[in-house]
User: Fold this.
Amino acid sequence: MDVYTELLERGKKKLPDTRHDTERFVIPKIKGYIQGNKTILSNFVQIAQHLGRKPQHMLKYVLKELATPGEIKRQFVLLGAKVPASRINEKIQKYADVFVICRECGKPDTKMTKEGNIYFIKCQACGAKYSVYSKI
Assistant:
């Protein structure tokens, strides 16, 4: 048994030290600027597409969480208040945790459907299906 352990240790020492600690699913950070009393977001629609969700649904959630008015104009989002990017990124992460990431396996490979007033999340990776209660 000692010979096996020694061989195993020698083999481990010869392995390269490359590690891939990066996650497969990274939410892009919001890009925007403040103009007067408004905040203009330039990549909100692209983030929603990256998450695989409708921009209107994600915007409705973020606006409710931020307690501010806003709307989508072309590919920009106009918020009716000065909001720091860190707060917006925090709300987008919260949205992803509720509506994108699977509760069972933790993977982002989900599809969202609406049946009546209830949203259902169906995971393409593990097959789990569950409802998401939302007041939006």
Notes: Residues 9 and 15 are 10 Å apart (CA to CA).
